[in-house]
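User: Predict structure, ligand zinc ion.
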Amino acid sequence: MDNFNFYSPTEFVFGKDRETECGKYVKKYGGKKVLVHFGGGSAEKSGLLAKVRKSLEQAGVSYTELGGVQPNPRDTLVYKGIELCRSEGVDFILAVGGGSVIDSAKAIAAGTLYEGDFWDFYCGTPIEKALPIGVVLTIAAAGSEGSGNSVITKEDGLLKRGTGSDLLRSRFSILDPALTQTLPAYQTACGATDIMAHVFERYFTNTKEVEITDRLCEAVLLTMVKEVPRVIKDPDNYEACANIMWAGMVAHNNIVGVGRQQDWNSHGMEHELSALYDCAHGAGLAVIMPAWMEYVRSHNVMRFCQMATRVFGCQMDYENPDATALEGICCFRRFLKSIGMPINFDELGAKAEDIPVLVEKLGIGDGRRAGFMELDRQDVTRIYEIAVKAKI
Ligand code: NZQ
Ligand code: ZN
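Assistant: Predicted complex:
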């Protein structure tokens, strides 16, 4: 196991109706003038925003609002948010929504206190200060409620890029599983795929002797395999929603990834898909991640056998371990298909002829991307090609 620091300072407030306490938590963490940031309409329609407003008013906290965050959040709204925070003297941002709203809130939080262009942070400039943020989560997916990351798309050129800093970690995150019961099955499945991908990005490692994190990863994956079909079948199943919601946090606050090298190449390749086609991040991952697995499996076939046997219950074929590895990958793809995810370019709405563009935008040049297996331009091209033709 490698040396590590683990820092996860967020206060998680979990359970039914806990969103009615958001005013109290904003106050606890020093918010006096709040920007309530939200998405395209679901939070208004479900009555969640009304509850948030009431809670803030009861706590005596004044607020202003900015809605309209789109999935794959854009820089244009971030600029608007920064202006609003400055002109209104906002000192705390409350994100009410999913990963897109939270990531947009994080960008505004850092951008408001920065004299330059906030996009600098997404091109490598370190974040030195940021307004505090809080979260009321409405979808189990990106894990942004427990991570220090933010991913934003620059409309000009469709560049989807990420940044990270402990300063972006939420002061508190309210997780009420009942809020996820209004999600369409497709969004639930996209979120579930993202959660599993966050675990797999950490699971496929070259670090030896990481039994504790291997087993934690497998626990999250097994939970997803059990609970997701239950929620797809019955969105009102509170207990299944609760398990998935907590799994989404555990999958990405890095507790399952400490002390080990991680991969993240599937995420890199996916971000180019969701930038170009504006597809859901989880749907893009459903197409890319099994293709990546197929391509890299020979790098350490026994690690794929471990996934196949421990997570998907495959029989180990000691004469032909590659067959077991492939069976595990096939089980993952079958699972994704069964919950309604696309598994190839066609089903996602992506085009094979765009592969050179996707590869170019990854900016590999003549180098290699680090990870479980290092990838050059040819490798990445080949993975996209596998994703074009994938079937069950
Ligand atoms: O905008 P509204 O109307 O709210 O609709 C949203 C949106 O259309 C809807 N939705 C959310 N909660 C709902 C609901 N509809 C009904 N009932 C509810 N309770 O779901 C749609 C998707 O929402 P979004 O926030 O985009 O989903 P998600 O949480 O998957 O976030 C995706 C974004 O997060 C980034 C992705 O790249 C993508 O841009 N990621 C962020 C990460 C991070 N910050 O750590 C890590 C991830 O790997 C990921 O890259
Ligand atoms: Zn993700």
